[in-house]
Amino acid sequence: MRFARTLSLYVIRETLLYCTLAFLVLTLVLLTQNLLRRLDELFLVGMTLADLRVVMACIFPIAISYAIPLAFLIGLLLAIRRLNTDGELLALRSIGFGPPHLLLPTLLLAAAASLGSAWLMNDIDYQARRQLVQLFKQVAARGAIIEPGKFRHVGAHLIFVEDRQRDGSLRGVMIYDRSQTDRRFRVFASRGRFEFDERSEKIQLYLREGDVHFDPREDAPDRYERIRFETLSYQLDVRHLLGMDFGPVRPKQMSLPELRDVLKRAERGDPLRELDQKDPVAYALEIHRRRALPLAPLVLAAVGLPIALASEHRGRNAGLLLVLVAAFAYYAAGAICEALAESGALGPVAANWLPNLIFGILGGVLIARSRRWIPV
Description:
Helix content: 55-70%
Radius of gyration: 28 Å
Shape: elongated
Order of helices and strands: HHHHHEEEEEEHHHHHH
Structural class: alpha+beta
């Protein structure tokens, strides 16, 4: 096969243009999906605009690590479609340039995308997650979830505070607790104070001089219960506001040396009590995920390029759909293998590398057969 330097640079430029456009759109979608989903609740726990900028800076590298493979695949298809629409693919075939000549520049771009993904997943992603944990704990600790003069819904609780001081002291507290549907109650206290417990991710309210009023039971609607208290400790769980990904240190928030250290501890019989996930398989899966998943652009390029060329050669409009189905199948295979590993039916190494192996072989077969599908 002749190496066409000018052709390769031209294909790289065209593909890179569409990949960049697809990347910007996908990144915007992922950012808005992850941020807007919790925006109201995050401002509820006291987030400011300055905090929001930090959140966006942290979510951005997490989002782009997932956007790169799919953006590359969509950009590749759009570039092939543009070349075919302008008759450039036909012109290339007429002078003897076929699919193998397009494969080299495509794989070069895919390799660059894989290197970028590997850097993000191994060096940036876990640090961004840790910074989010720290930020959200600081925000929650400010206690802005309790805003004087306003009713606030926090999960199954409705809270009202008449006044709040900077030192955390409260005056005129009312709480309506609906966490137990069969035993709802209201708490009234003349004063109190709040603190945020970082370990349990709960807001602790220390109330003084008040009453607890229980709603009547269904079996005794005429019975009214009231408890007078001098002091009362009351907790508000805000983990659902912070999100599952922002809890205590988890595999995705650890560096590779920390993950390996957890596995060594597990081998020595350590129960890992202080960690959120006690099963060492989760930490082994994370190690191999960071090694295998960055290869997704290469694997998807090997599958996507023949599909894109074949669909354009036959004048079909199903190319984008087929490419997206291939990408979905790749990630679905990864999720299934991970579930099998968590159940013990598959090892962590096989669970992460099996999708790459399957789709790598499929890509090789499609590339080999593309010379017969698409005559040079």
